[in-house]
Write a structure and sequence with these properties.
The protein is an alpha/beta fold. The protein folds into 4 domains: 138 residues, 3-Layer(aba) Sandwich (Rossmann fold); 108 residues, Beta-Lactamase (2-Layer Sandwich); 84 residues; 149 residues, Histidine kinase-like ATPase, C-terminal domain (Heat Shock Protein 90, 2-Layer Sandwich), CATH 3.30.565. The chain is built from 18 helices and 15 strands. The strands form 3 sheets. It has a 5-stranded parallel beta sheet with strand order 2-1-3-4-5, with helices on both faces. It has a 5-stranded antiparallel beta sheet with strand order 7-6-10-9-8, with helices on both faces. Helix 11 runs antiparallel to helix 12. The protein starts with a helix and ends with a helix.
Length: 511
């Protein structure tokens, strides 16, 4: 037997149960020769034995078998009563095997004759080493139990199901561990979940099973985080629950994959999300309805301005022209006054035409979007003195609703530029990209900051965004290359045939 130098130089605390002084001196001498530093205490009765056991820990206990009333059997029972794991080695003067067998059955670790001091040292070293190993093992077990208790306490108090899922090399799944929260979450006992994975998979709503399989396969293939959301119908529950499984996979050398994670109940957040989504859809529908009503009102007012007010202004202009032809040449003051009135009439007619055009541009319906945008750019340049260039790559054919939305977006954007941008140049570009139509509006002004976007009264930008969203489009704001702002609106392009069919359906329904 090989003993390490560390064990040789270690201090041995030995308790000798013997009334003979010769045994003590021989044992101390033999251990010292073997390289140990023995600390030996001798007791001769049961009272002294209990007292020494209570004072300190001992590495081994040597017990002479010839002490009346203090046999090795009684020493072992005393050790057990004190809940101590100290190896007991019996020393005997007899060579009979039967007493030794009885003593070892009672719990004595080994029996030696007194005249075998060399072997006694080896036995002491062995028993001390094994006792320390047992102590270390008990300490590890204690730590493991404490860790398991903490884990189970944490798992029980978590608002969800803690699980350990395994996928073997053939792709079969099974739960290795499921916390008690699984029953609260999906209404299935942990024993049933660990006994068969089908108990869990069968509780998943049929429409969500394919997504679950895909999420598991992707996580196992790429070792990416498993993050699946789906509905599980618990037993004895009419309404399914939304559950989120979140876990990080771990691949082992044998090809199996383990997921350690938690399943959480996200039903309330999903219901809130659904309510919020429905609310946004209703707001979008209301906004679209209000916009449609606003356009109808604009069209009515523009028609009244063009028909009623325009007719009146034309009539007044004709009457003024007739009056100018009848005034004598000598009435210079009256002629000058009449010319001033005619100038004001021309200005009023121009203003009325511009207002009607802004309310409902007839050019948009008669000549299309490109002509309307060019007319709007010319009006903007004349009114503000800021040059506005219009570029387009090809003739783009869009439906009436999209054309009107793009026109209103340009109208709103130019109004914002005139009020806030402090720009000296504006550029519009309309182009087709695949099945989308893209409108870009650039200026070289001061730009748009996050603070401007978040202003409580920033209705212009919100209106542009809402118009884009109502047509399933996208709206974003980027910094322009030469300073200023760059607005990009991307709308899906509908087929003209679909537009014509949509317009024809109401007429067909009349007949």
């Amino acid at each position: 037997m090989v003993v390490s130098s560390k064990a040789k130089n270690s201090r041995l605390r030995l308790l000798l149960v013997d009334r003979s002084e010769d045994g003590l001196s021989i044992l101390r001498q033999r251990l010292s020769i073997s390289g140990h530093r023995p600390d030996i205490e001798q007791v001769g009765n049961l009272f002294a034995l209990r007292e020494q056991l209570a004072i300190q820990r001992w590495d081994a206990l040597l017990c002479a078998s010839a002490i009346p009333g203090l046999s090795p059997h009684k020493v072992v029972r005393t050790m057990r009563d004190c809940d101590l794991d100290i190896p007991v080695i019996a020393l005997t003067d007899s060579s009979r095997e039967q007493p030794a067998i009885i003593a070892m059955k009672a719990g004595v670790r080994d029996c030696l004759r007194r005249d075998q001091p060399a072997r006694l040292v080896l036995v002491i070293e062995r028993e001390v080493r094994e006792a320390r190993q047992r102590a270390d093992h008990r300490a590890v077990l204690t730590l493991l139990r404490d860790s398991e208790d903490r884990f189970r306490g944490l798992a029980v108090n978590l608002p969800g199901m803690v699980f350990q899922l395994e996928r073997n090399r053939s792709g079969a799944l099974r739960f290795l561990y499921v916390s008690e929260g699984g029953y609260k979450l999906i209404g299935i006992r942990a024993q049933l979940l660990t006994s068969s994975f089908e108990n869990f998979f069968g509780a998943i709503e049929p429409d969500d099973r394919a997504a679950f399989k895909a999420a598991i396969t992707e996580s196992a293939t790429t070792l990416s985080t498993l993050n699946w959301e789906g509905r599980i119908r618990a037993r004895n529950r009419l309404k399914p629950r939304w559950v989120n499984l979140h876990s990080v996979p771990q691949r082992f050398n044998d090809g199996t994959i383990h997921w350690h994670g938690i399943a959480s109940d996200i039903t309330r957040s999903k219901e809130t999300e659904s309510t919020l989504r429905r609310s946004r859809e209703q707001l979008s529908e209301l906004s679209a309805y209000l916009e449609a009503a606003k356009e109808e009102e604009r069209e009515r007012i523009a028609r009244d301005i063009h028909d009623e007010l325009g007719s009146l202004l034309v009539g007044i202009k004709i009457e003024a022209a007739l009056l100018a032809g009848k005034l004598p040449k000598a009435q210079v003051g009256l002629r000058d006054k009449l010319r001033s009135i005619q100038a004001l009439l021309n200005q009023a007619m121009g203003t009325a035409s511009r207002v009607a055009r802004e309310l409902r541009p007839g050019i948009l319906k008669e000549f299309g979007l490109l002509a309307a945008l060019e007319s709007q750019a010319e009006d903007f340049a004349q009114r503000t003195g800021i040059p506005c260039r219009v570029h387009y790559d090809e003739v783009v054919d869009v439906d009436d609703r999209t054309s009107l939305a793009l026109f209103r977006i340009v109208q709103e954007a130019l109004t914002n530029i005139a009020k806030h941008a402090h720009a000296s140049l504006v550029a519009l570009r309309l182009q087709r990209e695949g099945r989308h139509i893209v409108l870009e509006i650039r200026d070289n002004g001061r730009g748009i900051s996050e603070a401007d976007m978040n202003k409580s009264k920033s209705f212009g930008l919100r209106g542009i965004r809402e118009r884009s969203r109502s047509l399933n489009g996208e709206f974003r704001i980027e910094p322009s290359e030469q300073g200023g702002a760059h607005l990009v609106i991307q709308l899906p392009l509908k087929q003209s045939v679909e537009s014509e069919r949509t317009e024809a359906e109401p007429q067909q329904n009349l007949f």
